[in-house]
Amino acid sequence: MLLVNHVMSNDVASGIFSDIISYYRSYAPPGIEHVASASAALGGMIRHYHRPNLESRLSGPCVVTVHHDLRDDDPSLTVQHFTDRYREANRVICLNSLQRDYLAADGITNTVVIPHGYHARYIRARGDATDTPYLENTGSGKNGRVVIGVFSRRYPRKVKGEGYIYELAQRLDPARFEFVLIGKGRTYDAAVLERFGFDVNAYEALPYKTVASAYRTVDALLMSSWFEGGPANIPEAVGGAVPVLCNPIGMAKDMVVDRENGLHLSMDAGSDAERISAWLLDPASRADLREGAMRNAGNAITWAIHASRVVDVYREVLNETLGSILTWQNAS
User: Fold this and answer.
1) Domain assignment of residue 124, yes or no
2) Where does the Glycosyl transferase family domain lie (predicted)?
3) Which end of the chain is more exposed for a tag (fewer CB within 10 A), N or C?
4) Please, which residues have CB within 8 angstroms of residue 262's CB and are 6 or more apart in sequence?
């Protein structure tokens, strides 16, 4: 039996971390057990740190995951709080190539890129025989309007780009676009967009299965964050063959190809609105993006693949530090 100790470094509950560890448990191969604790547990095991900035020293052998944007200007997330711990780790798991390249520029090269995944049981790609808007190349909304989805919670820091969304919306035609918003705090944004003249469906909280099915109701996902390690909606949209309109940061940089399965935003609302309208309102261009989204759905991986790749990292670290030990052989 190989024990993997997920060290949370404090007692503050995190729904995101709990979900990730539940995926690791669900997809763990025989002989591997995942145990979460606030501090590093004693005994022979590999440790996986998720908040290394809260530690004064890591207990090896260990890996850490970079869950945030290393350029984030939040004082609690500045990279200086993390780099010493990254250097101590046997391996640093990055979610995207931007994190890897940022760390490499600082001399930290003990890295591997493993993006977060999507739940294959619930995310179903658009474009199948039941998807009438895709088959008929119309918008998915009322009277053929193009539906833009914003699937993320609203943060007080407005790090998700709420101001940009408002500026962008004021340059789009409410007669030809509508919105679906899902996430805590998004009813506030819905009221603003409705004042701009848009039809908006907004939901503060939905079961994950319902959120997953909502991707099949939108023609494009809008990801306008200023800083991102992920976010989760990128692999979900890409795996679901939904074109993505994104600031090319986080996992979007690696999964979304400009003018192929989405559009890279300049974050200038005026020029972006013109480009979005040109691509999504023109039938031929819209069809090109939809076909590209279907071709590139494999740019995202499932949670099962993600968990398997993380196990491979545990294997590498244990072999490097302890050799091909019997415990690992029995767990493989």
Assistant:
1) no
2) 150-293
3) N
4) 220, 243, 244, 245, 246, 252, 256, 289, 292, 293
Residue 122 falls inside a structural domain: no
Same domain membership, residue 265 and residue 191: yes
Residues 163 and 92 in one domain: no
* Owning domain of residue 178: 132-299
Same domain, 28 and 63: yes
Residue holding tokens 């996430």? 183
- pLDDT tens-place string over residues 210-255: 999 999 999 999 999 999 999 999 999 999 999 999 999 999 999 9
pLDDT tens digits, residue range 187-211? 999 999 999 999 999 999 999 999 9
CA 118, 136, 200, 210 torsion-angle sign: negative
E strands, the chain, in order: 2-7, 32-37, 46-49, 62-65, 91-94, 111-113, 146-151, 177-182, 200-203, 220-223, 244-246, 262-264
pLDDT given for residue 326 in this prediction: 42
* Per-position DSSP letters for 201-246, written without gaps between them: EEES---HHHHHHHGGG-SEEEE--SS-S--THHHHHHHTT--EEE
